[in-house]
C-alpha cells in the first residue's frame, strides 16, 4: 500500500510538471500573445500581475505605463486599431474581461456583469436614476450635504487643525449616495473626523480584489465569515458591515444602524 501511494504521488508530480511545461511552451510559442514583443514572464503567467498588484500594492498600472514607453514603436503601429477597440455597442458587443471581474466574486451587480446583453438589461434598470430630471430633483439634497461640509470646514478655518481631504470627500460621496438611495444619509459628514474608518475599509476591500483574482475561492470564503467575527478581527470594518446590512437586508437607516457606521471603534481626534 505504501509503494502504491508513493507511486501515485510521483505520477501526480510528473503529470503536474508535464502539464506546466506544455502550457509554458504553448503560451510562449503558439498563443496569440507569442507574436507580441514584451516580457516573457507576462506572457507565461498571470503571477506577474499578482506580483505588481499584490506584493507591490497596486503598481501593475504603472508597470504597464513603463512597458508602453519601452515598446512605443510597436504601439504606434497599433494606433489604427483604436477605433476598433473602443466602439459603441451598435458596432460590436463587448464582453468584460473575465479575469478582471473575478475580484468581485459571483455578484449580480451591474458593474461586474460580463455579458453584454445582461449588462445592458441591468444598466437599463438603473438608467432612470441618472436621468437629467432625476439629477435635477437630487440637487437640493446634494446642496444640503455640501452646505454641511462648508460649515464644517469653516469651523476649523484659521486653526491648527488638520483635515484629511480624502476622508472628507469619501464621506461626502457616501452621504450623497445614501441620501439618494435611501432618502437619508449615512451620516459620515457628522463624524468628528469625517469617518476615516470608512475610507480605510474601502481601501482594504479594494486591495483584496487583486488577491481574489488569483485565488477566486477566497472571495466566497471571506463572504461567509460571520460579520461579528470579521468586526472583531478588524473593528474599523464595522462601517462597511453597517452599509452591507442596509443594502442586503433593506434595514431602515435607524439611529442604531447609522451609529454603527459612523462611530467605529478607535476613531479619535485628529489634530
Automatic annotation (TrEMBL):
Against Pfam families, the record matches this protein to: p450
Q: Which cofactor does it need?
A: heme
Listed A to Z, the keywords are: Iron, Metal-binding, Monooxygenase, Oxidoreductase
The entry lists its GO molecular-function terms as:
heme binding; iron ion binding; monooxygenase activity; oxidoreductase activity, acting on paired donors, with incorporation or reduction of molecular oxygen
Matching PANTHER family: CYTOCHROME P450 (PTHR24305), N-ACETYLTRYPTOPHAN 6-HYDROXYLASE IVOC-RELATED (PTHR24305:SF157)
Family that this chain belongs to: Belongs to the cytochrome P450 family.
Which protein are we looking at? Cytochrome P450
Q: Which organism is it from?
A: Alectoria fallacina
Amino acid at each position: 500500500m505504501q509503494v502504491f501511494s508513493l507511486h501515485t504521488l510521483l505520477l501526480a508530480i510528473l503529470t503536474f510538471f508535464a502539464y506546466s511545461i506544455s502550457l509554458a511552451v504553448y503560451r510562449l510559442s503558439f498563443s496569440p500573445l507569442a507574436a507580441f514583443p514584451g516580457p516573457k514572464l507576462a506572457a507565461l503567467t498571470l503571477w506577474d500581475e499578482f506580483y505588481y498588484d499584490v506584493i507591490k500594492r497596486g503598481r501593475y498600472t504603472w508597470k504597464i505605463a513603463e512597458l508602453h514607453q519601452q515598446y512605443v514603436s510597436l504601439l504606434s503601429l497599433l494606433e489604427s486599431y483604436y477605433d476598433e477597440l473602443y466602439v459603441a455597442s451598435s458596432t460590436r458587443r463587448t464582453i468584460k474581461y473575465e479575469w478582471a471581474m473575478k475580484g468581485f466574486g459571483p455578484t449580480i451587480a451591474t458593474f461586474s456583469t460580463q455579458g453584454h446583453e445582461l449588462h445592458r438589461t441591468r444598466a437599463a434598470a438603473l438608467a432612470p436614476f441618472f436621468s437629467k430630471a432625476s439629477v435635477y430633483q437630487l440637487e437640493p439634497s446634494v446642496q444640503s450635504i455640501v452646505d454641511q461640509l462648508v460649515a464644517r470646514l469653516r469651523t476649523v478655518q484659521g486653526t491648527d487643525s488638520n483635515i484629511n481631504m480624502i476622508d472628507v470627500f469619501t464621506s461626502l460621496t457616501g452621504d450623497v449616495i445614501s441620501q439618494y438611495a435611501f432618502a437619508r444619509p449615512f451620516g459620515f459628514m457628522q463624524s468628528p473626523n469625517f469617518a476615516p474608518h470608512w475610507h480605510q475599509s474601502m481601501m482594504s476591500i479594494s486591495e483584496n480584489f487583486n488577491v481574489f483574482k488569483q485565488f477566486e475561492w477566497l472571495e466566497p470564503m471571506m463572504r461567509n465569515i460571520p460579520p461579528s467575527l470579521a468586526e472583531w478581527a478588524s473593528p474599523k470594518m464595522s462601517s462597511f458591515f453597517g452599509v452591507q446590512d442596509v443594502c442586503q437586508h433593506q434595514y431602515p437607516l435607524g439611529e442604531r444602524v447609522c451609529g454603527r457606521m459612523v462611530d467605529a471603534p478607535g476613531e479619535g481626534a485628529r489634530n
